[in-house]
Amino acid sequence: MSTARATDAPHATHALGAADGARVGAAERYLRMLTENAGPRMLLDVRYRTEECGLARIFLPATSNVAASTIESIGSRTDVYVGCALRVRRRGTRDDIAPTALLWADCDTPESLAALAAFAFKPTMIVASGSPAHTHAYWTLTHPLGTDELESANRRLATALGADPRCADAARILRPPGSWNFKHTPPRPVELLEYTSARYRPAELFAALPLEPARPAADRSPPALRREDDPLQQIKPTHYIRLLTGKAPGRDGKIECPFHDDNTPSLHVYDTPEQGWACFGCKTPDGRPRGGDIYTFASLLWLTGQSRDVPLRGRDFTDLRARLEDTFRITRDRGPDRTHRELADDTFPGLEL
Ligand SMILES: [Zn+2]
């Protein structure tokens, strides 16, 4: 196992201030909204940014009474995100989503904020994410929805409000209030702006929403993750290539290419996920050097035939992503007490390899 500490950024001290008590309160109120219908084994999916491994993950029991302070503690030193829907097992895919009585929308433009303010159904909670205009609105429902229905309702909400449609997926993770947004220097607080006890009957809310535009059957693939939201695309190439091939790049940043007969290490492993990797000794069928990101690397490694060379879509892509998520699993099968102790010790779990 290799461990990675959460961002031990010098600016993290900005995050610790006199208002800490109030901030735990915000995280607590937020979790109360997320977990109010929680069954005994349901889990909060919590991710946090680490310097080395992108987003690490822990699952906390939804009924844990230290979840809020754990999240607040992590969130005082690094970006932290929580799955809006609870999980039924220690995995974060669409198949692991619990029935959920909560809808959400990411209003990220002045126009969508205006639409939100004018919307007849006042959100149960409004959270400012710390980036300009980015506001997360939540609506508590009287009855839980299944995953398909939940995503459909979120998409219709996004359409009604002009909100970001990519945040409609059931596996979405968002910043909890009481944490800090470290995209900015100094970090900005993620703030609980409004909280009410409003809850809505799904049928009433749905009646007020525009219908979803019909989508062609071929487009039933899950919505693509934004790069910054995709934990797999946060992993550094040196790390994923070492894990997937067992080879560590040399001082020149190269390894022997697993995709062609390579005597001299010629596959370049770059520093950032955006740069990815490239091998100039390999050619795609249309004559370009092979290269790309974690997905292209894994599909070349794991798939056969022409599926290696076409961008994967739909089920093929979902399967590849699931396999990568399993491979880079950041799950820790431990209870909240242990988590809390580790936090108190100032040690953070990273990827467990
Ligand atoms: Zn090659």
Provide tags for this entry:
single chain, 353 residues, alpha+beta, five-stranded mixed beta sheet, four-stranded antiparallel beta sheet, 9 helices, disordered N terminus, binds zinc ion
Outline the fold blueprint.
Blueprint: H1 20-35, E1 43-50, E2 54-61, H2 67-75, E3 80-83, E4 100-107, H3 110-118, E5 125-128, E6 135-145, H4 147-161, E7 173-174, E8 180-181, E9 188-189, E10 191-195, E11 199-200, H5 202-207, H6 237-245, E12 254-255, E13 267-269, E14 277-283, E15 289-292, H7 294-302, H8 314-327, H9 336-344
Parallel strand pairs: 6-11
Antiparallel strand pairs: 1-2, 1-3, 3-7, 4-6, 5-6, 5-10, 8-9, 12-13, 13-14, 14-15
Helix pairs in contact: 1-2, 2-9, 6-7
Residues 257, 259-260, 262, 267, 279, 281-282 line the site of zinc ion (ZN).
Would you identify the regions where 5 or more consecutive residues have pLDDT less than 50? 1-19, 216-223, 330-353
**What fraction of the residues are assigned to beta strands by DSSP?**
15-25%
Quaternary state of the chains: single chain
Small molecules in complex:
zinc ion
Quickly count the helices. Answer: 9
Distance N terminus to C terminus? 5 Å
For CATH, the homologous superfamily of the largest domain is named as: RepB DNA-primase, N-terminal domain
Largest sheet: 5 strands, mixed
Got a strand count?
15
Question: What is the CATH top level name of the largest domain?
Answer: Alpha Beta
Structural class: alpha+beta
Overall helicity = 25-40%
Q: Might you state the CATH topology name of the largest domain?
A: Alpha-Beta Plaits
Question: At CATH's second level, what is the architecture of the largest domain?
Answer: 2-Layer Sandwich
Would you list the SSEs in sequence order as H and E? HEEHEEHEEHEEEEEHHEEEEHHH
Radius of gyration: 21 Å
Mean pLDDT: 81
Task: Sum up the overall morphology in one term.
Answer: elongated
How many distinct domains? 2
